[in-house]
Amino acid sequence: MINKFSLLLLLTLIASISNTFAQEDGYPRNWDIDILHYRFELELSDQDNLIKGETTIDFQLLKAQEELVIDLVKEEGERGMTVNSIKSKGQPVEFYHEGDQITIDIKDFSLKEKHQVVIEYQGIPKDGLVISENKFGDRTFFGDNWPNRAHNWLACVDHPSEKASVEFLVTAPSHYQVVATGLLKEQTDLEDNKRLTHYGTEIDMSPKVMVIGVGRFAIQTAGHLGCTQVSSWVYPQNREKGFHDYEQAVEVLDWFINKIGEYPYEKLANVQSKTRFGGMENAGNIFYFEGSVTGERAHEDLLAHEIAHQWFGNSATEKQWHHIWLSEGFATYFADVYIEEKYGEEKRQERMLDERRQVVEFYKRQQWPVVYAGVSSLMDLLNDNSYEKGAWILHMLRRKIGDEKFFQGITNYYNKFRDSVALSEEFQAVMEEASGEDLNAFFQQWLYRAGHPQLKTEVKNIKGKTLIELIQTQEKPFNFEVELEAVLKDGSIIELGTHSISESKQFIETDITDKIERIIIDPDVHLLFELIN
Questions:
Q1: Where are the beta strands (DSSP E) in 441-527?
Q2: CA-CA-CA-CA torsion sign (146, 150, 152, 157)
């Protein structure tokens, strides 16, 4: 006979399936439970890759609930986690662990009080916590949670919309140093050559950016900006090169503080690591790929991109995965702006020409809009739409409303959604308020519509007048403004001004009487388009 709790689980499964289709990114998020705080206690060993974990979760019920669902990958074969017990106030709590989720019976938990459950588990992570050797052969442990890989080793609600404060208590062999989210609270040597390292923060953040890094490090304080310490954590074997490279982060962080607003975290540790990405923007603890250390400061733009994420993606976070351009597009563009202001407009143009090329090439493979719920694999969201097209949308918005209103709007957006979550339409509303303009047509065209203008020009002489025909070759015309220049037979260039385009074919009249060799579309690189020969 099916018992009451099993029936509850069956009904929950049905509700979850229904909710999956209702949610834009498919995650069955329960908005009536608020996770307040995670306390992750982890024990690591050199004997094997088994980790022992104890997660304490503080939460509040906004409405009466039958269950609390926590993400944790269940052991299958040799990898995954086995839950040993779940307790509340020292007493066992009934639970069910299947697949990637633990369902905990909380029907007797009262409304609006703060509650706590303690989950004890162990296992070898399938993913998320990368246990391996670095390029020098030293054993390392690095959290690498993006997008939703945290629940391979941490019991949590593994979705960007669920933010909570966090602390890590890591017990590891004493020959390792530990870097983790938040400020260092304790470091105590234990018996058997073990060391307890405790970090914590009261700032709410998503699980994707809660991490630890454990290994042999050379550590240097690169500088301070106000109360914020900027540090470098690199492998001892490339210590001098690493310190030289990562010291640039002080200048980059200072630029972002002045450009956008107050830095959202207590510290910034820049860490050489085993991340699978070029860089992973963990909150206050950026993990860079091993090859980022060159001694030649070859990755300043990478530092700028990951530091930009501290504001956009980490603090002001996309509420649903398919709005990831609010993270990656912002980081890409503000790295461009950093390079522009430091090295000049020509460098910005070079970068955005390359980004435009990437957007065009991606569209030939996938005809997706930037915000597109049809992307089923979260890893597939790491595409040129989310990064480069997102950056181009911000640049065209900046051109449309002007620098002053654009940067004020960006600051307003950050301040409004700091330590919180937002959707694209909420960003749009903030920019409309800052600019005093209705931007709906702009966002509908560039954000929610696939493609871009595909342009070519023809020079015609009709009844003694020189006309330039600007042709949009894609099926439906875009509305945009574009600058044009004419190159004459003698090599001289004549500016033709800025023109509003809304038709598939539009004629532009000129006073030029000399022979025009060709037309330059968008000479200063302000429009996302594809040139058709």
A1: 454-462, 465-472, 480-488, 493-501, 505-510, 516-521
A2: negative
Q: Ramachandran region of residue 394, left (φ > 0), alpha (ψ -120 to 50) or beta?
A: alpha
Strands (DSSP E) contained in 316-422 are 316-318, 420-422
> What count of other Cβ atoms lies within 10 Å of the Cβ of residue 68?
24
DSSP string computed for 238-287: GHHHHHHHHTHHHHHHHHHHHHT-S-SSSEEEEEEE--SSSEE--TTEEE
Please list the pLDDT of the chain residue by residue as tens digits (533 residues): 333 333 333 333 333 333 333 336 889 999 999 999 999 999 999 999 999 999 999 999 999 999 999 999 999 989 999 999 999 999 999 999 999 999 999 999 999 789 999 999 999 999 999 999 999 999 999 999 999 999 999 999 999 999 999 999 999 999 999 999 999 999 999 999 999 999 999 999 999 999 999 999 999 999 999 999 999 999 999 999 999 999 999 999 999 999 999 999 999 999 999 999 999 999 999 999 999 999 999 999 999 999 999 999 999 999 999 999 999 999 999 999 999 999 999 999 999 999 999 999 999 999 999 999 999 899 999 999 999 999 999 999 999 999 999 999 999 999 999 999 999 999 999 999 999 999 999 999 999 999 999 999 999 988 778 899 999 999 999 999 999 999 999 999 999 999 999 999 999 999 887 889 999 999 999 999 999 98
Three-state SS annotation for 407-451: HHHHHHHHHHHCCEEECHHHHHHHHHHHHCCCCHHHHHHHCCCCC
Two domains, one topology: 217-311 and 316-446: no
Strand partners, 51: 123
Q: Which fold has domain 316-446?
A: Neutral Protease; domain 2 (1.10.390)
What angle is formed at CA 33 by the lines to CA 29 and CA 37, rounded to 5 degrees?
Answer: 105
Q: Where are the domains of the chain?
A: 217-311, 316-446, 454-531
Degrees to nearest 5, angle at CA 169 with 166 and 172: 145
- φ, ψ of residue 276 to 5 degrees: the values are -75, -15
How many C-beta atoms lie closer than 10 Å to residue 494's C-beta? Answer: 14
CATH value of 217-311 in 1.10.340.30, 3.20.20.140, 3.10.580.10, 3.30.2010.30: 3.30.2010.30
Domain range 454-531, CATH class: mainly beta
Closest CA to 388 of 454, 329, 312, 305: 329
DSSP 7-29: HHHHHHHHHHHHHHHHSTTS---
